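Course exercise 7: structure representation. Students receive a sequence record and must write out the corresponding structure in token form. The form below is the worked example handed out in class, using Beta-xylanase (353 residues). Read each field label carefully; the graders check that inputs and outputs are placed in the correct fields and that the protein name is recorded exactly as given.

STUDENT ID: A-19
EXERCISE PROTEIN: Beta-xylanase
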Amino acid sequence: MTSSLALVPLAAAGSAAAAEAPAHGGKERTLRQLAADDRLRVGTAVDMSALADDTDYRRITGEQFSTVTPENVMKWEVIEPQRGVYDYAAADQLVAFAARHGQKVRGHTLVWHSQLPSWLTTGDFTAQELRQILHRHITDTVRHFKGRIWQWDVVNEAFNDDGTLRDSIWLRKLGPGYIADAFRWAHEADPHAKLFYNDYNIEWSGPKSDAVLDLAGRLKAEGVPIDGVGFQGHLGIQYGLPGGLPENFARFEKLGLDTAVTEADVRMVLPADDEKLATQAEGYRLLLDACLRTRHCISFTVWGFTDRYSWVPGVFEGEGAANLLDEDYGVKPAFRAVQKALSGHARTKSATR
Ligand code: G3I
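STUDENT ANSWER:
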């Protein structure tokens, strides 16, 4: 029997898993309450259509999480669909929702190769024009949300898996210096926001995480205002789970950087079964445990919390079931694993900022 966050108050759920969960004043404590004990924010990416249309989704987003990330609505194609025509409406709605629910916002994302407006990708701009366009985009966007964004993903996914810089409109036309420029421009626009480099597959040791470490070290040495590195945490159980995560996170912390898990989900080849769901739970536990063991890991964010709205099936055919709750908001072993890890008080107050 599974309990459902939508239909059954967790404390009333009769499953063995629910019985193991900590009770608090007769009511099960939420993830955000448990994370607060660890001085960690626990977050989710938010699908704005679901937030508008689905009351269970809205309630769980507000109750369980202390930070939110717009899944799509702060991306350039949404914010400036036509050149000079801005649309911050959906992003503003999420920022307002967060304020009402005492949540902090991760801004996602300023510089990326994907989800760019077509006027930008098809325009035949000179390097100088493109540099001005990027400067204006970063400045206008960061200023618009000034004081309301906790962490910005300033540059997203700039590396290939082999550790070389990704071929993108930015690298091709502006050269590798676009990365440092982006951080400088974002800092000028909001000096109090924490500025992150964000990428996937850097949970694994290897050329990509080494390259990001090298970049972060060089940026710090040059006085570029980078505050942290985000480990997206998109895992698939068919590929195995990364080992040595706490040690990997610690390498970044040694540079004086914060870290964060920014987009955790753990997919599988469908159909799901008990064994796969148990491995998935272990994947979530590993990511969260690495964060809890790292002194300056400041947030643990899942990329959506329910299989109902996941991006995975649309991109990886035959795969899915990647989230903490199933399509009916039923509690999966992964949710219990996260709850349990947060209840373990893995880090003491003295081990955190
Ligand atoms: O908005 C249009 C809508 O007008 C249209 O009718 C519909 C038809 O398919 O598409 C809608 O756009 C989709 C958009 O999500 C909003 O729902 C795009 O097709 C779809 O490609 C897009 O996917 C997003 C993906 O980024 C794009 O790269 C996913 O939702 C989002 O979860 C995913 O998030 C990324 C992070 O930003 C960066 N890290 C990896 C992560 C997963 O890919």
